[in-house]
Amino acid sequence: MEITDALDLLKEKGYKYTGKREKMVRLFSEKRRYLSAKEVLLDMQEEYPNLSFDTIYRNLTLFEELGLLETTEFKGEKQYRFSCGSTHHHHHLICTKCRKTISFEMCPMNVIFGSPKDFMITGHKFEIYGYCSDCMEAGV
Amino acid sequence: MEITDALDLLKEKGYKYTGKREKMVRLFSEKRRYLSAKEVLLDMQEEYPNLSFDTIYRNLTLFEELGLLETTEFKGEKQYRFSCGSTHHHHHLICTKCRKTISFEMCPMNVIFGSPKDFMITGHKFEIYGYCSDCMEAGV
DNA sequence: CTCTTTGCAAAACATTTGCATGCCT
DNA sequence: AGGCATGCAAATGTTTTGCAAAGAG
Q: Which CATH architecture has domain A3-82?
């Protein structure tokens, strides 16, 4: 996913590409890792000091609905990251310190399961947690 | 995990086996599925009408620390279930309607990965979501 | 009798909503 | 101009904490 894709998606659906939305998109595009609503707010407030949580949440929710952002849940907080692009299903290694992610394509569902007859599968979650090389070196 | 194991664990660590704790343990032992704090409270209040959330949370936290309960996170709520017993690592199929779980021993970590050099793995989460046979029939 | 457990009340924290105003197209 | 976006304030929902009273070993 690139910034221009995000812009197109918003336009296409009739949403406005405001300065705040642009900055939010740029933030996610630069960081490429999971961010909490609070982190987004703090970063945004450098440019928009009056910005408040409701706008952040409204836009995070909108972006998620549009498929711009992928989400997961982490220590009781929802976490958002720029979508890797929906071309193929994938999973992540997630650094629990800096929340950087590394994608990988292997999916256990393909490898292992047939479909159990007594359970209708609708989804799954597979995430690997640990420390990325930077955070390892920093001495966790 | 059986009720008597829970009792032993509490005694062993010097915690008291109060009527409320006993009922909580029995509840989890009977249900054998994920329950939210609210569900636990509602069930408990049939016997203890004045019981409040703080006691529930304190005991849920204690039980989790003791390894009596396994937890996961689900729609912004923490969910607790009676531990399957720590004899071997396992994962769950989770019915998203009734939160019943079905254990399975296959772990994708064993099957697929060596250890990537640039990431120190400390944990993982693998859960499969869907509808159990009961909820399928009930016509979700 | 002592230390743990509980109830009460209040607070902390993440998230959501109503409403009036402001801004993009 | 018209509809979407935002700020403000207040509410919601989950979970935590301090303190004093009650209960278990």
A: Orthogonal Bundle (1.10)
Q: What whole-number distance in Å separates Cα of residue A35 and Cα of residue A38? A: 8
DSSP run (H or E) holding A17: none
Entry field: residues in chain B: 140
Six token digits for residue B33:
């599925």
Question: In chain B, which segments carry CATH 1.10.10.10?
Answer: 3-82
Alpha-carbon distance A15 to A114, whole Å? 42
* CATH 3.30.1490.190 domain locations along chain A: 91-137
Which one is the CATH code of B91-137: 3.40.50.2020, 3.30.1490.190, 3.30.70.20, 3.40.50.300?
A: 3.30.1490.190
Residue B70: phi and psi, rounded to 5, are -100, 150
| A41-64: pLDDT as tens digits | 999 999 999 899 999 999 999 999
- Does A76 contact strand C, using a CB cutoff of 7 Å? yes
Q: Write down the pLDDT at residue B115.
A: 67
**Is the Cβ atom of B21 within 7 Å of strand C at any atom?**
yes
What mean pLDDT is predicted for residues B103-128? 85
Alpha-carbon gap, residue A53 to A82, rounded angstroms: 19
Question: Measured in angstroms, what separates residue B16's CA from nucleotide C2's C1'?
Answer: 14
Contact B129/A136, CB-based, under 8 Å? no
Tens digits of per-residue pLDDT, B38-73?
999 999 999 999 999 999 999 999 999 999 999 999
Q: Which of residues 15-44 of A touch B (CB under 8 A)?
A: none
B46-CA/D11-C1' distance, Å: 29
> Across the interface, do A122 and B130 touch by the CB < 8 Å criterion?
yes
Do the Cβ atoms of A78 and B76 come within 8 Å? yes
